[in-house]
Recover the amino acids of this structure.
């Protein structure tokens, strides 16, 4: 049972999701103008997951994300300016232009990527949690990964190790039903991912990942339980409205399926809930849209005005002591 | 300063780990069977009893998870020493070593660094066949972002861990399985060593023998044999395969004008190929003969003793190669 949301907080969640949605829509345009290059994976449709989960963390907690992480980076509070500058490959980017869309980092925000090897971030998350426990810090590490990662050995090794050592990791499985073009049914002998996690003696929940309030409530419980105890697992059932990346012809799914999920757009669901509470009207939306658009256009201007790192610095950051 | 005593390579490495655990509460060790079992090669024997299960952590057989956990723990302020049983098993963790440990600093624009030490056994010579015997030390040295150490002496087994732990970058230490029972004197306190320079283990004037790791004793034995034939060979122990101290090699080649590289790795695409190329680039006109190489045969290491011996660099093979470069030089 989800309690009625606090209207002001509900509006905050809505605004965060809107920031991600509009940010990425502009990224598509910038990509088609060749201002952003490389692989770029859009989070549109999945915004409720990052926003709901990250709303429950403190600044001392750690976040490990995937290559589809613009939303997590924004929701974690990394400025849109530095994310956009990173997409433009500029020095002012949150990874100094060395990472790009798939490798957003921010040490200050304890945001550890931006990992583009499916499953590769999970062992690192276990280690971050181990370091916190060994040093007596009360932090939690939240690790996002797609359902495709459940087919990787690193998922099973990592959740087992976290359970064995009772480490404060919240494993957040973003089940958007497709590992690139391979559906869950074509990839798992048993599609019940929550049951798989539970088999490692890890408390595991299936959550409606399109409902930001449901996500936040589940995450609050899981983060609290991890902080005081061991690992937790959330399967956040969601859907990516856009193609896997900018090169995906989408031959593997029906338009009717996409339309059915679009009918449960997390922004629409959140807006409707807030309207029911009397906390949202057209003027609210206009105000939020204007504020978000202003932020994003400013970020683009910031990125365009950014500087390219001199080629003479090419080999910096390979070894710590080699940096000038 | 007490009188030097005899110790083994294994005991020297254990003493280094014990020392690190005692000095810094951020240091801990983890790996398969390192605690209760005492270590597959008994390097960590007794450390569990001394430091407890928090700091001497037995892991499941999950190389990727515990190497990745080492990376995460290093990011979180710890100084982990991860033991991988053999270099062949490290391939199960190659994603973490290559895609995370070696890249995180660069991908993050210098924000993150991974002060992680990974120790593993390498090399052949014990009839362990094709999944426990390979020498991939040079292969790992291909990767920018990590450092590769190959302690070949008692002193380096004792001394290289401390600077590796003090290093802000990920460091891989390759311990040749054939060296664990090697004995020799070790001063007390042990000498401080660096992880930067190659070492001239035996000075000589007629030919330079370049090697590292498990083939150092073989190469020194070859130099002794050559001395009996009137050839004064210089032996260089590379010690560090990345970053490579080519200056020490080039300096020697400029004096001897002849060089044989001894490498337990396979010849094709090997560290010996890299060294040969650097000699060509930097000292071509100092050479009196083409660079020669003695490497492992290009075959998965076989079980049968005589076949394994035939696959590996030998004293006779090194002596023959050295005599050939001397003859070729006129």
């Amino acid at each position: 049972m989800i309690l009625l949301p606090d209207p002001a907080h509900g509006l905050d969640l809505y605004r965060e999701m809107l920031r991600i949605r509009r940010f990425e829509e502009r990224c598509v345009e910038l990509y088609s103008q060749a201002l952003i290059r490389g692989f770029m994976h859009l989070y549109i449709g999945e915004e409720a997951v990052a926003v709901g989960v990250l709303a429950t963390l403190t600044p001392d907690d750690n976040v490990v994300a995937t290559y589809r992480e613009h939303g997590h980076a924004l929701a974690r509070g990394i400025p849109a300016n530095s994310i956009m500058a990173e997409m433009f490959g500029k020095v002012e980017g949150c990874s100094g232009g060395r990472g790009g869309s798939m490798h957003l980092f921010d040490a200050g925000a304890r945001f550890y990527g931006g990992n583009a090897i499916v499953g590769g971030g999970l062992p690192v998350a276990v280690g971050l949690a181990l370091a916190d426990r060994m040093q007596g810090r009360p932090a939690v590490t939240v690790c996002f990964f797609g359902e495709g990662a459940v087919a990787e050995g690193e998922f099973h090794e990592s959740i087992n190790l976290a359970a064995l050592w009772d480490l404060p990791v919240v494993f957040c499985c973003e089940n958007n039903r497709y590992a690139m073009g391979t559906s869950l049914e074509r990839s798992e002998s048993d599609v019940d991912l929550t049951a798989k996690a539970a088999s490692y003696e890890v408390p595991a929940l299936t959550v409606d990942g399109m409902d930001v309030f449901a996500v936040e409530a589940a995450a609050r419980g899981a983060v609290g339980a991890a902080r005081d105890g061991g690992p937790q697992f959330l399967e956040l059932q969601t859907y990516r409205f856009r193609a896997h990346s900018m090169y995906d012809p989408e031959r593997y799914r029906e338009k009717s399926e996409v339309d059915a999920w679009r009918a449960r757009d997390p922004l629409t669901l959140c807006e409707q809930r807030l309207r029911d509470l009397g906390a949202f009207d057209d003027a609210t939306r206009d105000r939020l849209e204007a504020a978000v658009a202003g932020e994003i256009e400013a970020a683009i201007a910031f990125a365009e005005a950014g500087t390219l790192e001199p080629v003479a610095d090419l080999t910096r950051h390979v070894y710590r002591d080699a940096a000038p | 300063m007490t009188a030097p005593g005899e110790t083994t390579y294994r005991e020297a490495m254990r003493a280094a780990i014990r020392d690190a655990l005692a000095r810094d509460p951020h240091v801990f060790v983890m790996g398969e069977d390192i605690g209760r079992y005492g270590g597959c090669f008994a390097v960590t024997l007794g450390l569990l009893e001394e430091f407890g299960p928090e700091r001497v952590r037995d892991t499941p057989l999950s190389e990727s998870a515990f190497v990745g956990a080492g990376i995460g723990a290093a990011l979180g302020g710890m100084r982990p020493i991860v033991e991988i049983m053999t270099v062949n098993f490290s391939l199960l963790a190659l994603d973490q070593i290559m895609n995370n440990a070696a890249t995180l600093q660069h991908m993050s624009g210098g924000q993150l660094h991974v002060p992680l030490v990974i120790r593993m056994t390498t090399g052949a010579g014990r009839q362990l066949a094709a999944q426990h015997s390979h020498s991939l030390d040079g292969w790992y040295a291909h990767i920018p972002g990590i450092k590769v150490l190959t302690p070949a002496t008692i002193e380096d087994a004792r001394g290289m861990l401390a600077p590796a732990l003090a290093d802000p970058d990920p460091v891989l230490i390759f311990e040749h399985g054939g060296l664990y029972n090697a004995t020799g004197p070790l001063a007390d306190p042990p000498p401080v060593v660096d992880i930067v320079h190659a070492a001239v283990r035996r000075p000589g004037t007629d030919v330079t023998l370049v090697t590292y790791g498990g083939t150092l004793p073989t190469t020194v034995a070859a130099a002794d044999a050559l001395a009996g034939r009137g050839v004064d060979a210089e032996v260089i122990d590379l010690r560090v395969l990345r970053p490579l101290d080519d200056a020490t090699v080039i300096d020697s080649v400029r004096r001897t004008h002849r060089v044989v590289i001894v490498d337990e790795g396979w010849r094709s695409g090997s560290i010996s190929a890299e060294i040969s190329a650097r000699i060509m680039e930097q000292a071509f006109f100092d050479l009196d003969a083409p660079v020669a190489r003695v490497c492992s045969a290009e075959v998965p290491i076989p079980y049968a003793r005589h076949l394994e011996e035939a696959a590996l660099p030998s004293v006779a093979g090194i002596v023959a190669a050295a005599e050939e470069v001397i003859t070729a030089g006129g």
